[in-house]
């Protein structure tokens, strides 16, 4: 398996996984089959479309390569029909979502670096690639975006993106260390889920809500 | 009237129609004149801006050709002043929205094919061009996006986009059959409205809400 | 100080100011440190990313120049730690937001004109650059977008963008008159805040809500 085949495989796996997470969220909101496929599509491909637009790879892969849209649509439709089984597999979905986060962080950061985006920009693009689809999914289904909740999610992607950029800087961006970076994001996210790790919240003086007080 | 004049005319008609739908939604939410024009602008031009970004036609037509922004702004402002009459014409607005859906599906798919996007991608871009503005309008006015509701909306656009792509594949993408494709979307949407056709929803086991149960 | 240094300085000041407005909104919503930085990032750089995409300056400055992302992230993080002081400085934040509106209107319109976008399009892009970040901030924190509320906000940016375009048309787009345009937006917004100026709202027949009446 060549490197580019491996990258494609990693990318399509991430697409399928995020399509499943989007479809599950849409089923839970009682959307119809088309709504489910649409939210699955946005969750799977939204981050990558944004990435391709900012690195000027147009048309974005999601439109240029039929395997992307097809993988997203078929997976989301499958989730629609199979969701009772999926519901029992809730843990599986969370694990798959963590895997997608790791895969997209690595492929997104790599593609940005390949397009000659400077390190800081590539890190931000890699992170946005990984969290963008979930952000779109949450906006569409009117949930508070997972990235804004008190959980280690975006920061896991951030750590992975920094890792890929460092590997690239020392000229060591080969298959094995990159897989390690993806695994790092994956494990970080899983541990955060299990231990309910969360980032600090600013302390607000009780019980006034600060900015929008009565004098607001 | 040449083909490109006809396309421009079809496009501007779609812009006016969607601007009216956006403005009506904004008036109903009691937004001020600028909010009404802004939502009208997003509804009319959002889908096309997205389309132009992904097919690398920059600056997007909405900014490159003053007739687009002007048509959207003038129509939306007119709806602000004339809305009591519009309210009585609710059916008219729905019919016009269906017409816009048909027009944007055809012009969006054609432009993507012209930009050498492969068939599957062109179909998705055509559909997103048609539904994108409405999606933006609904997100801005905090409505559940119409495309996610239990109605034949996105699927009408999808059918039209597939039709245009097939016509293009057999080298038959001329004015008459393309008008037929636009009419097909239009009629499909109207019939769905009248018969209250809707797509199936996944059956959830009562009354647990699946994914977010008490053990969530 | 050369013109381009001055433009960079104006741009980074706008970035810091909008990052602070986004971070303050996120703190008030009790988001964690990463959510605060993320909303700050979107508020500070969202409008500029959109502008760069439509004028085909890719990768957008927000990713191509590390000073942009860093300014946004550091400012937002600082607001997270310093917010109790900020809360007392609510007026300051509103004033800074008005200053950012003026700065982004001028730099956004200028960049669009430099990219050979025609006048009407450049005006719209300048306005969207200025209000885009705040729109993203409000969508993420589930607020009714400020641009849609009954306040002179987008219209202040619109006036400034028209001014810059006129100055450019008569070949008079130098530092001093451009600073005047930024000041005009700033003062217009401040006066609107103080006098509670607002744009007219369409009169709806009491108490029926028009479009979505019982027959809806």
Short description:
Three copies of one chain form a homotrimer. The first copy, chain A, has 216 residues and is an all-alpha fold. Chain A has helices spanning 3-28, 33-54, 61-64, 66-88, 90-114, 119-140, 154-169, 175-195.
Task: Characterise this structure.
- Three copies of one chain form a homotrimer.
- Chain A has helices at 3-28, 33-54, 61-64, 66-88, 90-114, 119-140, 154-169, 175-195.
- Residues 206-216 of chain A have low confidence and may be disordered.
- Chain A has 216 residues and is an all-alpha fold.
- The longest helix of chain A has 26 residues, at 3-28.
- The first copy, chain A, has one domain (3-198).
- Chains in contact: A-B, A-C, B-C.
- The A-C interface holds A 53-56, 112, 115, 117-122, 124-125, 139, 144-145, 147-150, 154-155, 198-202, 204-205, 209-212, 216 and C 24-28, 30-36, 38-39, 41, 49, 53, 56, 58-60, 62-66, 69-70, 80-81, 83-84, 87, 90, 139-140, 142.
Write the topology of this structure.
Three copies of one chain form a homotrimer.
Chain A: H1 3-28, H2 33-54, H3 61-64, H4 66-88, H5 90-114, H6 119-140, H7 154-169, H8 175-195
Helix pairs in contact in A: 1-2, 1-4, 1-5, 1-6, 2-4, 2-6, 5-6, 5-7, 5-8, 6-7, 7-8
For the structure shown, list the relevant keywords:
216 residues; 8 helices; mainly alpha; homotrimer
């Amino acid at each position: 398996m060549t490197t580019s085949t491996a990258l494609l495989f990693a990318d399509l796996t991430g697409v399928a996984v995020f399509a499943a997470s989007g479809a599950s969220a849409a089923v839970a909101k009682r959307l119809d089959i088309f709504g489910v496929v649409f939210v699955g599509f946005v969750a799977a491909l939204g981050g990558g479309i944004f990435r391709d637009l900012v690195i000027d790879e147009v048309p974005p892969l999601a439109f240029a390569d039929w395997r992307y849209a097809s993988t997203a649509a078929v997976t989301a439709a499958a989730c629609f029909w199979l969701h009772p089984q999926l519901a029992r597999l809730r843990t599986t979905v969370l694990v798959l979502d963590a895997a997608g986060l790791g895969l997209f962080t690595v492929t997104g950061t790599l593609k940005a670096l390949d397009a000659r985006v400077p390190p800081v920009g590539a890190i931000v693009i890699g992170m946005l690639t990984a969290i963008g689809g979930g952000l779109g999914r949450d906006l569409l289904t009117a949930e508070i975006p997972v990235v804004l909740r008190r959980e280690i999610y975006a920061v896991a992607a951030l750590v992975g993106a920094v890792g890929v950029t460092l590997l690239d800087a020392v000229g060591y961006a080969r298959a094995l260390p990159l897989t390690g970076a993806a695994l790092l994001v994956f494990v970080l996210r899983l541990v955060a889920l299990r231990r309910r790790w969360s980032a600090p919240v600013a302390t607000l003086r009780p019980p006034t809500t600060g900015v929008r007080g009565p004098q607001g």
